[in-house]
Amino acid sequence: MMKTPICDFVEEYARQNKLRLHMPGHKGREQLGFERFDITEISGADSLYHASGIIRESEENATALFESGATLYSTEGSSHVIRAMLYLAKTCAETASNRVIAARNAHSSFISACALNDIDVDWLYPEKGESYLSCVISAEALEKTLEKAEQTPLCVYVTSPDYLGNMCDIAALSEVCRRYGTMLVVDNAHGAYLKFLKKDMHPISLGATMCCDSAHKTLPVLTGGAYLHIAKDAPNSLKENAKSALSIFGSTSPSYLTLMSLDRANEYLSNGYHERLQHFVDRVESFTADLDICERSGLREPMKIVIRPKRIGYRGEEFSNELMKKGIVCEFCDDDFVVLMPSPENGEEELTVLFDVICKLERRGEIADVRTSFETPAKRMTLREATFSQSETVSADDALGRVLAKSCVSCPPAVSLIVSGEVFNQSVIDACKKYGFDSFCVVKEK
After folding, report:
1. Which fold has domain 5-270?
2. pLDDT per residue over 275-314, tens digit each?
């Protein structure tokens, strides 16, 4: 059985009922029921960004589980880790470039991270007709881009899996990156569990240099719990500077409740999780095979159910509301898709409930699936210049010709049709309106 050093320390400290003349201000007195475990970096509790005790031991356990060169914790989600990964790419890459090559469906945290790190982006775009939430890049397309690049980029950055469960061929992309002497960095926020499938599909196992996992998205970890993984064969400078990179962008008051959940997850993952996960994956696959409204094209992650409700006469929000009436809450919906994210914690009984509800929905006439297309917006400013410019909010009808200052999307899905520094054209405005955006933060005109 894998040890849980963080949990053991905090639980023992809570049992001792000591006089707490340290932060936090609740002093362990329970209003919500868990305050006795909510501590700070007291003696013996170690320090997240200078770990040498119980946190270091726990992170070493996670490193062994994921078979990485180093697996480090964050209590501030993959957004925190993404900022650190880009900082590491910029400070450790052996290139004079200040640019990354990235798939266009990057999360908004990538956009802000580039602005903070003063990095500019050469975008790889999805195929025509593909959802803006997806951008599956082939090895061939990446090779053509790298061949044309004037300088070796700091890294190549992809999101895999994406919000619709699509996955890139990470092994093939990593091989291309090796040939061109650059790093492959992966936003694997939705795929922490991929390591533990019968066929290991985790990016680090498939050749990525670095990746982030949002442990809380698919594992039994409290919200904010995340991993920074660095490959065994990655440059030593990445491992040597990883903690300082995380500290630059992270709070000096990490949540010990979240650290405890990451620590406990090590025990959970080491104790029969492979078998439990595979059994549940098989049940999900069996379930979706009987539904003609599920998305199945391409390489897909197995623990995301993506529904195309227009096939039975519903728009996404309407379909989601029908599920809500039966007490089922989806992860995300838009006009075209409904995304459900089960895990083994749901169990077969809850899968059966979901299946029964969907099967009993009234089947109506199919709604034509017209994909949103728009002209790629022109770039007028760098990400950093636009993000740090004075800005103002304007209505969508007044945005034509203006430069986006800051991202206009919420989470989920936190993927934007236009990024900071780009100019609104009418087709982009129309597309944004379709997805409910009626105002934008634009660069203030002088």
Report:
1. Aspartate Aminotransferase; domain 2 (3.40.640)
2. 999 999 999 999 999 899 999 888 999 999 999 999 999 9
